[in-house]
Write a structure and sequence with these properties.
The complex is a heterotrimer of chains A (99), B (93) and C (145). By secondary structure, chain A is mainly beta. Chain A has one domain (25-94): SH3 type barrels (Roll), CATH 2.30.30.100. Helices cover 6% and strands 52% of the residues of chain A. Chain A has a five-stranded antiparallel beta sheet with strand order 4-3-2-1-5, with no helix packed on it. Chain B has one domain: SH3 type barrels (Roll), CATH 2.30.30. Chain B is an alpha+beta fold. Helices cover 20% and strands 34% of the residues of chain B. Chain C has one domain (34-143): SH3 type barrels, CATH 2.30.30.100. Chain C has a six-stranded mixed beta sheet with strand order 5-1-2-3-4-6. In chain C, 21% of the residues are buried. The chains are: A mainly beta (99), B alpha+beta (93), C alpha+beta (145). Chains in contact: A-B, A-C, B-C. The B-C interface holds B 1-2, 4-6, 8-12, 19, 21, 23, 25, 31-35, 37, 39, 43, 52-63, 65-66, 81-82, 84-85, 88, 93 and C 13-23, 26-27, 29, 31-33, 36, 42, 44, 46, 48, 50, 60, 62, 72, 74, 91-92, 94-101, 104-108, 110. Chain B: One of its GO terms (molecular function) is RNA binding.
Chain lengths: 99, 93, 145
């Protein structure tokens, strides 16, 4: 028979506990290569590999104008229904804001 | 082993693998191993003009470490099963 | 004499199964490339180079031994396959590898040229990029005035 779980469910003892509490919540992920994504967290593992749903990705690129040689900062957005994200590209994860 | 097990359920389905060098390849998932190396068949490159050498190959082995994203077919994502599997894995399963 | 087999050869094909508790039916490590043995492959490296060769051996890191290796250099619509010999590639540098279509080994619609011609084309391409870079550098300098 399963014992009732002690208080551990809602406490944060180690970094990955923060993600455990974000399962099925919308999170923000900053990735290498000037990419950011927002999406609902459906799965993760200890490497921070993840599956996110209803993903919005924002990519920032700097282009040089051929004529004026000015730097043009562009942001591109796209949406993806379900996305596997490999953990080695993750810089930070932020859980949803709680009121 | 969570993602290895999950990817095995996608064998035979079409996925798009986006690499860290921005190359994106669509193909049928043929196999995956425990390093998340991926084999695709019937491949096509999203931006073929930029990667002409890829026109000579129709299947490929992608080293897991160079993958940035895998776009998953919406019909093969059961979020309840993923949540349960993730909770089990987090408990040290 | 039997041909040497890679470690863990002869693994059963991976079986798709439902997500569940940890499964133990995965193949032994490093067997993913058995089907590619003795095939002519195109390998893309992390620095963008493309190597073609016949796969003779591999291990769990995807270190590869290639026989009759060539580097395929493509500039615009021209290409050249430059002979390299027997190569051992370190797995870390590998991005992807695919079997060459035996009927279409050459990139379609491209003209095969000599190694000297492709090196010259490569040099011209780099020079053009460099000039673009310096033009921009000069402009930045003028802006400071």
């Amino acid at each position: 028979m399963a014992e009732p779980e002690p208080m551990e469910e809602a406490t944060v003892r180690e970094p990955l506990d923060l993600i455990r509490l974000s399962l099925d919540e919308r999170i923000y992920v900053k990735l290498r290569g000037e990419r950011e994504i927002r999406g609902r967290l459906h799965a993760y593992d200890q490497h921070l590999n993840m599956i996110l749903g209803d993903v919005e990705e924002t990519m920032t690129t700097v282009e040089i104008d051929d004529e004026t040689y000015e730097e043009i900062i562009k942001t591109q957005k796209r949406t993806i229904p379900f996305l596997f994200v490999r953990g080695d590209g993750v810089i930070l994860i932020s859980p949803p804001l709680r009121s | 082993m969570l993602f290895y097990s999950y990817f095995k359920t996608l064998v035979g389905k079409e996925v798009t693998v986006e690499l860290k060098n921005d190359l994106a390849i669509t193909g049928v998932l043929h196999s995956v191993d425990q390093y998340l190396n991926i084999k695709l068949t019937s491949t096509r490159v999203v931006d073929e003009a930029k990667y002409p050498h890829m026109m000579s190959v129709r299947n490929c082995f992608i080293r897991g470490s160079v993958v940035r994203y895998v776009h998953l077919p919406p019909g093969s994502v059961d979020v309840e099963i993923l949540h349960d599997a993730t909770r089990r894995e987090a408990k040290g399963g | 004499m039997a041909a040497p087999l890679p470690l863990g050869g002869g693994a059963p094909p991976p079986q798709p199964g439902p997500l569940g508790p940890p499964q133990l039916d995965y193949p032994p490590p490093g067997t993913a490339l058995v089907e590619e043995l003795d095939k002519k492959l195109l390998i893309q490296l992390r620095d963008g180079r493309k190597i073609i060769g016949v796969l003779r051996s591999f291990d769990q890191f995807a270190n590869l031994v290639l026989e009759e290796a060539v580097e395929r250099i493509i500039v615009g619509a021209r290409y050249s396959d430059v002979p390299l010999g027997m190569y051992l590639l370190r797995g870390e540098n590998l991005v992807l590898m695919g079997q060459l279509d035996p009927n279409h080994e050459a990139p379609p619609g491209m003209e095969a040229v000599s190694e000297a011609a492709i090196r010259e084309a490569l040099r011209a391409e780099r020079e053009e990029a460099r000039i673009k870079g310096t033009m921009r550098g000069r402009f930045d300098f003028l802006e400071l005035e």
